Fold this protein.
Amino acid sequence: MTGKQYKTLWITKTDTGIVEQAITDRPIADLPDGELLVRVHYSSLNYKDMISATGRPGVTRNYPHQPGIDAAGIVEESLHPDFSPGDEVIVCGYDLGMNTAGGLGQYIRVPAGWAVPMPSGLTAREAMIYGTAGFTAALCIEKLLQMGAHPESGDVAVTGATGGVGTFAIALLAKLGFSVAAVTGKIENATHLHALGAHQIVDRNVLLEQKRPIEKPRFAHGIDSLGGDYLANLLKLIDYSGSVAACGLASSFDLHTTVLPFILRNVNLLGVDCVEQPIERKAMNWQKLGSDWKLDNLEDMVEEIGLEQVPDCLDRMARGQVVGRYLVSLDR
Ligand SMILES: NC(=O)c1ccc[n+]([C@@H]2O[C@H](COP(=O)([O-])OP(=O)(O)OC[C@H]3O[C@@H](n4cnc5c(N)ncnc54)[C@H](OP(=O)(O)O)[C@@H]3O)[C@@H](O)[C@H]2O)c1
C-alpha cells in the first residue's frame, strides 16, 4: 500500500455473517470521493454505531466498513468554495458511518453539504460530547416547544433515560426549566439521573403495566427513544393536549396503539429524525447547543476513550450496560 495512512476501526463481515472489529491502518486514497477531506479529532459512540459495527441489519449494507455517525475535526483539503483548509467542522448524519466511511477513523471524505461550520460557542470536543445524541435530544425538545410545551405544563417523561439521547434530553429540559421524569430500566442509577436534572425516577416496567386503552394522565409530555410497548403505553399516560417526540427504537420498531390518546386527549405524536435534516437546520441547532442551550457540565456527561477501547464499549452498548456516553478521541 502506498500513500498516507490513517488509523480506523474497520469492520469486516464474511459471506457466512461472521463479523470482526479491528483497529487498522488504511490509505487515505481509499476513502470515497467527496469535496472535503477532514482530519477527525473527536467522534462519539451511538446506538447506530453499535448496529453498524456488529453487522446487524438496518444501518450498513456494505462491508468492509469504517463506522461512526459522528465526526468533528479540521478540513485538510477542500474542493468547495465555502470551506478552506483549517476550518473546523461538524459532520453528522446523512450517510456518514452508514455506507460512507465514518468518524471512527482519523480521516473522512464527505460532500461539503454534509458539513456544519463549528459554531463559535463550541469546540470539536464539546460538539462530540453532544454528538448525535445531544443533537437529537435538542430536536425533540424543539418539537415539543413548537407544540406549545412550557415548564408549567407538568412533568416531561424521558424514556431510555440513562442512554445517550435520554441523558441529554434530561439535562437540556432541566436547563430550560422543565420538571423531568426519567424513565429507566437501571433504577440503581437514580443518583446519576437526579444529578442530570431529573425530578423523579420511574421504573420503565411501570410503563408496561398500563393495560387499559387509556390511563389516568401522569405526564404533560414525553421524549421516547424506545418505541414498542413503552411508547404505546406512554401515549396512554399523556395529559390533555400533550405531545410525545418519538425518536428511537431501542426496544422495538413496532407500535401497537389505539386512537384513544389522540381523539380523547388531543395528544400529538411527533416524529423526529436527525439524519436527513436540511443542513441549514442542523447548523441552527448546533448553534443553539453552543449558545442559549449550552450545558455547563458537558465534561461530566461523557467518558473519553480511544479507538482501541471502542470494540469493548460497543459490546457493552449492545448488552444495554452503558450509562451516559462515550466520547472518542482520534488523537490518542
Ligand atoms: N431519530 C433519530 O434521528 C435518532 C437519533 C439518535 C438516536 N436514535 C435512536 O434512539 C434510540 C436511543 O439511542 P441512544 O444513542 O440514546 O442509545 P443508547 O445510548 O444505547 O441508549 C438506549 C437506552 O434505552 C434503554 N434500552 C436499551 N435497550 C432497551 C430495551 N431492549 N428495552 C427497553 N429499554 C432499552 C436503556 O436505557 P435505560 O436502561 O435507562 O432504560 C439504554 O440506555 C436508538 O434506537 C437510536 O437508534 C434516533
